[in-house]
Amino acid sequence: MSSVCTIIAARNASSTISAAITSALNDPHVAEVVVVDDASTDATADTARESNDGSGRLKVVRFETNKGPAAARNYAIECSSAPLISVLDADDFFIEGRFSQLLSVPDWDIIADNIVFVSEESIRDFDSRTIPRFGGAPWTLDITTFAQRNISKRHRQRGELGFLKPLIRREFLTRNNLRYNEKLRLGEDYELYAWALAFGARFQVISNCGYGAVVRSDSLSGRHSADDLKNLADAAEMLLKSGLLSHQAAKAVEAHAKHVRSKYYHRQFLDVNAREGLAAAAAVFVRDPATMLPITSAIVMDKYEAFTRFWRNEPVLSGDEGRLRFLFDKPPRQLSEDATRLTTA
């Protein structure tokens, strides 16, 4: 019955790691939980070890130097042996019955479920029984839909499918020589899933929730650097050059790469401006004119949004104000239609 290994990459997560581990150990399908402490400066490793339920399923490893979440997850995969691998972030949790739900679906290499986002302020009062059930048959995720649904848009709640935390067959990863890209500290999940889809992975998704993500204002994903964005855009270019993509899929992946590179140019401009002043930042335009449009567009939008908030006396909202939010709420057919419309426009 126990066939799942849960891998957790953790850094400075002493306040949340116990809840994450407990949610995994409570599931009877979990045979192993491997925690890799990525050189934390707090008591993450000790707290993780204290979460042991005595079943012998928990293994805690500590890196002495920070290597990033991709390296930590790869090491956890090598330290485990269960045929199915599940990813759990150190401040998130599994919802009771998750793996029974996922394992009831046939014919997949990768399978994921919907995610409920819970604000950090409301996590103590959160009751998973209040989550509505979403019906409908499982749907197959293709690379065109996946790439398009990872392009974030202003004035739209974030719902990138790269947030998915799936269950993956070890055999598929091994057969295709797939692991997390250790050069990435941003978007490493997106890149792995994109390559898997390019290699023909049967990626099934169910609409019901089985994963809880805690929304924190100081999350690592919200503190990405210009280099992080550049590395992610460069990784997308490697996929485009692989020859594995259809014309439509390549257009979607290229659109995502262009989106990430535009964010890189904007971030680079802001960083240079902060360090060296506006004159040095403006020199970025001169050195590379291709950066002018994305940088200018991003700055104009930032100023416009700030002015709009001031004019309307609107507060800057930082949370979900107690409301449950989900990764996706459209029917799967509509997700695919949206992606097709965007790539054929």
Report on this model:
With 345 residues, this protein is an alpha/beta fold. Among the domains are: 1-94, Alpha-Beta Complex (Spore Coat Polysaccharide Biosynthesis Protein SpsA, Chain A); 226-312, no CATH class. The protein is built from twelve helices and ten strands. Strands 1, 2, 3, 4, 5, 6, 7, 8, 9 and 10 form a ten-stranded mixed beta sheet that branches. Helix 9 (247-276) packs antiparallel against helix 10 (278-287) and helix 9 (247-276) packs across helix 11. The longest helix is centred in the last third of the chain and has 30 residues, at 247-276. Mean pLDDT is 84; it is low at 299-321 and 339-345.
Keywords:
single chain; 345 residues; alpha/beta; Spore Coat Polysaccharide Biosynthesis Protein SpsA, Chain A; 10-stranded mixed β-sheet; Glyco_trans_2-like; transferase activity
The CATH topology of the domain at 1-94 comes to Spore Coat Polysaccharide Biosynthesis Protein SpsA, Chain A
The largest pleated sheet is described as: 10 strands, mixed
H and E order: EHEHEHEEHEEHEHHEHHHHEH
Number of strands: 10
The named CATH superfamily of the domain at 1-94: Spore Coat Polysaccharide Biosynthesis Protein SpsA, Chain A
CATH architecture of the domain at 1-94: Alpha-Beta Complex
Q: What's the gyration radius in Å?
A: 21 Å
Task: Kindly estimate the percentage of residues that lie in beta strands according to DSSP.
Answer: 15-25%
Specify the number of helices. 12
Helix-strand category: alpha/beta
Low-pLDDT segments, ≥5 res: 299-321, 339-345
Q: What share of the residues lie within helices?
A: 40-55%
Provide mean pLDDT, rounded.
84
Pfam family, one: Glycos_transf_2
Protein name: Glycosyl transferase family A
Domain Glycosyltransferase 2-like: 7-129
Keywords: Transferase
